[in-house]
Amino acid sequence: MEEKKHLSIRMDGELHNKLQFVAAYEGRSMSRQILYLINQCVREFEKEHGPIRPEDLD
Questions:
Q1: Contact indicator for 52, 46 with CB cutoff of 8 Å
Q2: What is the pLDDT of residues 7-47, one digit of tens each?
Q3: pTM summary value
Q4: CA 45/CA 48 separation, integer angstroms
Q5: What domain count does the chain have?
Q6: How far from each other are the two terminal CA atoms of the chain, in whole angstroms?
Q7: Which of 1, 6, 10, 58 is 20 to 30 Å from the Cα of 17, by its Cα?
């Protein structure tokens, strides 16, 4: 079973409120919205640079 990791980020109140608005508009929690955006970023990176392999992560 894959180990879950925790990430804590700090942001100013205005950005927090805007992210909360966007997440609600998209029908996601803030956590799910952030995961969606992170996955989108990784997909775009891999599209441009090729897959990130397990050995690249060491």
A1: yes
A2: 999 999 999 999 999 999 999 999 999 999 999 999 999 99
A3: 0.86
A4: 5
A5: 1
A6: 19
A7: 6
